[in-house]
Task: inverse folding
């Protein structure tokens, strides 16, 4: 039996975590199903290059507003936040039943924007809720289980959703997504969280706290905490080249003489690798720690990228599996690092601050890759991405003992 399966079975004996796990699974199934379908749907309504591109912009843009949401999430019951968020998505998705023509594209953009905002809110509330559902020593296993469930959803959801959209139509797709969200919402009513005292949000006197001070608390905490600051910087460095991978794959597939449909095979291979990596991530983290898990995951991603750069079908598939295998480790490690180094009543502000900060280099990477790919071979871009990603992981793995020994600085000031 996989270590994660054994640990997850133990966690699933906890009623509230068990219920939340399945509510989370239904939510992420609905979440991962819409991204590709919205882009395809927009393209079918308006046959223009900008149509699907606008969908991805709409999904990412709300991340920049994350700190505003984080300040509210930290002061509200997390299950209430998740219920309201899920109910809002149900109403938004059902509105797409009226999507027609060019006006329908703008409705898709609006729903995509709401979805993007819901994802940010969901991430912040999830992190805050999990620390009230499981013991501190079980956080790694809980994060691994939740992240792996998301990878399973990503493996199944997009392909199933596109197939449903193509063969049964947009209405069937909308109703299935709304039903999954309704199931998640129903389960959330059965989750019992441990409520924390709102006055514990800060040790400062209420009259000394300004709105700006409150909104920037997450960013200031990240900047003041040595390990989190270093971790965030290195993640942002890797995200500056992250867009190379997805865009370069189009050229790689062409160069090995395969049709664009082969991208589906590579996506499945990457997803299978991600699930496999997630299944052992908790056990590996127990041996090497959360920061090194992120570092070694980035190194594995770098190795997968360099293998993918080879003009050989088998190498590209193997590289996709290896890239996916490594990709889950940084997610699980970072989730755990944030939770363990952040006060309970600042969790949402810190998580949403991370979403806001990392969305900038991620978006820039796609813009840069789109420009550079016209002049630089895809293989060379992948090599650059591989070196940057692996070097960032190596730096983090080597620096981990120093980061642990320094601990957290300026604790009070970040509150």
Result:
């Amino acid at each position: 039996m996989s270590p994660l399966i054994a640990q997850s079975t133990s966690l699933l004996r906890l009623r509230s975590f068990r219920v939340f796990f399945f509510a989370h699974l239904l939510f992420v199934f609905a979440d991962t199903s819409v991204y590709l379908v919205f882009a395809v749907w927009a393209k079918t309504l308006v046959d223009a290059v900008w149509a699907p591109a606008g969908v991805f912009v709409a999904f990412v843009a709300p991340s920049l507003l994350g700190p505003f949401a984080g300040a509210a999430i930290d002061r509200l019951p997390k299950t209430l936040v998740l219920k309201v968020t899920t109910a809002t998505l149900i109403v938004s998705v059902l509105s797409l039943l009226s999507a027609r023509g060019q006006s329908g594209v703008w409705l898709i953009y609006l729903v995509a924007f709401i979805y993007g905002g819901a994802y940010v809110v969901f991430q912040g509330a999830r992190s805050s809720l999990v620390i009230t559902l499981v013991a501190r020593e079980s956080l790694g296993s809980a994060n691994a289980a939740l992240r792996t469930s998301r990878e399973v959803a990503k493996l199944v959801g997009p392909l199933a959703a596109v197939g449903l959209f193509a063969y049964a139509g947009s209405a069937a797709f909308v109703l299935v997504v709304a039903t999954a969200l309704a199931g998640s919402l129903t389960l959330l009513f059965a989750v019992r969280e441990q409520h924390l005292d709102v006055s514990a949000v800060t040790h400062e006197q209420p009259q000394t706290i300004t709105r700006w001070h409150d909104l920037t608390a997450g960013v200031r905490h990240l900047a003041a905490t040595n390990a989190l600051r270093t971790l965030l910087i290195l993640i942002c460095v890797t995200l500056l080249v992250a867009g190379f991978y997805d865009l370069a794959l189009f050229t790689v597939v062409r160069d090995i003489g395969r049709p664009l449909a082969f991208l589906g095979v590579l996506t499945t291979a990457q997803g299978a690798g991600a699930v496999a990596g997630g299944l052992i991530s908790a056990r590996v983290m127990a041996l090497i720690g959360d920061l090194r898990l992120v570092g070694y995951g980035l190194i594995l991603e770098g190795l997968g990228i360099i293998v993918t750069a080879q003009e050989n079908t088998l190498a590209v598939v193997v590289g996709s599996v290896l890239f996916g295998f490594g990709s889950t480790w940084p997610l699980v490690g970072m989730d755990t690092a944030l939770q363990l180094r952040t006060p309970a009543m600042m969790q949402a502000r810190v998580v949403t601050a991370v979403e806001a900060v990392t969305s900038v280099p991620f978006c820039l990477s796609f813009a840069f890759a789109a420009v550079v790919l016209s002049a630089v071979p895809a293989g060379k871009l992948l090599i650059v991405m591989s070196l940057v990603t692996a070097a960032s992981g190596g730096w983090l793995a080597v620096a981990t003992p120093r980061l642990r020994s320094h601990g957290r600085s300026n604790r009070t000031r970040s509150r």
